[in-house]
Write the structure tokens for this entry.
Amino acid sequence: MRSYRQLFRTPEYTPFLLSFAAHGAAQTINGLALATLVHRATDSPLLTALSMFGPQLAQVLGATFLLSGSDRLPPRSTLSGMELAFAAATAVTALPGLPVGAVFGVVLLQGLIASLGGGVRGGLMNEILSKEGYVLGRSVFNMLWGFIQIGGFAIGGVLLTVLSPRTCLLSAAALYLMSALVTRLGLTARPPRSSGRPSVAATWRTNALLWSSRPRRLTYLGLWVPNGLVVGCDSLFVSYDPRHAGALFAFGAVGMLAGDLTVGRLVPPALRPRLDIPLRLLLAAPYLFFFLRPGVVLAAVASAVASVGFAASLVLQERLMSHTPDELAGQALGLLSAGMLTMQGVSATVAGSVAQLTSPATAMTVMAAASAVVTLALATAARRPWSAGRAPGSEPEPPAPAEQPAQGQA
């Protein structure tokens, strides 16, 4: 599948995207409004960053206890129920006089619920699309997320100048309700992909199996760590420039959109695997210059250029799926999503703490440098023969697909 026409002729792909669009718009407006509310109440870079990216910290609990539900629950009813829960939780954060501690309690609950969503949604897309259409379909999914961020942060920034943060939160709750409705009416009821009840034991067992393969481990780490550290930079936009934070987020979304369009549609499949390391280094490099404290124009350009590097996730997700059985696709993608979001939450915490002690500009430079170092370390680790790092009793390694490069790529 190499054309958008073929892609959008695929049954259910369009309503699948529309339901995610409403969810993404709600999440974007909710995050910006909540960060603004907390910043005004506390004037703390750490708490501001945590209000926006703190839900990701709960992902580690979901990855530990809930992920088996990604393949063992019916996807349509699961996604619909989750959107209703998000709507209710967002409405609670809009209550006047709600203490900051209670706000963070609700935020962490949202993160725990969301930990199941990445696997359910990713596994469902894997069912809707053919193997050949996955990268193109995922690139459109990511580009849609870019458009949503551009529009959501831009519109959210405008709304916050004329409406209160609590009114914006109620708007986000309404969008979550819209997502639930589109999911219920637009998607077909499907049975679970795997038999058996969701359980903690099943979650641990499958996670251990997924982690037992060295190429999968390196792929997961490449998706989680460099990306997450750079999101730590993004989490400081509100503290770095409160008046223009929406513009910085929007320009970052433009860069992400450009990267996904180029890698997903224009780059030949044979060339894609060679781009993951250069793209991950590009993700970090522009933020190294933030120690100079650039103005809003240069900061926005740096954000856009860096965000092109997020397209590395397309290359690495394709690699992950090539090493994963179909019946484990949901949990594999759920573990990917939970790990990425957890790392983003951890990085936002670290970045906010460093900014609290130094400045947002210094913290962004530190996080970017750490991201580049991790990328180079993973590239070095991938060049070692896999058998040297194989754990006793681990899963035998499947042969690499023909279009993948040698083990020299992370």
